[in-house]
Amino acid sequence: MTHAPVPPRRRSAGDRRAQLVAIGLELLPTTPVQELTIDEVARRAGISRSLLFHYFASKRDYYTAVTRAAADVLLEHLAPRPGLPADEQATGMLERYVGWVETYRDAHLSFVRGAAAGDPWVAGIYEETREALVDLTLTALELPDDARRRQLVRAWFAFTEDLVIQWVREPTMERAELVALLRGFLTSLLDA
Hints:
The chain has helices at 13-27, 38-45, 49-55, 59-78, 86-103, 105-116, 120-140, 147-169, 175-191. The protein is an all-alpha fold.
């Protein structure tokens, strides 16, 4: 007895949106978000360009969804690991951050520069991400959350971001030295 082939199941709108964002995330290691082409994303999803715009009203909406998803992945990647002492938490977070920038250098640089250039859709996500990173750091170091510490950690992140981006482009020290320098600088700031 032969059975008629089962037609492929249609994806729900949420599943399709998630698929399209996942494709954008897959492309980020080699392509900054603003350079993702809608045609390439649609091709990889096996849909038409016009169908992609059924799920995202504009390119900017799509880019925003991919940027937000990348920021969420970054936060998850840097999150403190349960059971480790505070000092190891901070060092581990720094190690993972350096690895992130090494892997996603162009995309990360695009994210940072887009925020600095005042692009409102990038700047909002960037600020939310930076505040979440401050929260993660204070939690990892088991420090009280107050305005002074938040300001110092936020400034340390700006320094860390810039130095790591430069170091990935032109390593002037060993990776372990970089992490130790950044960790020491954070300790000095918070102890001042």
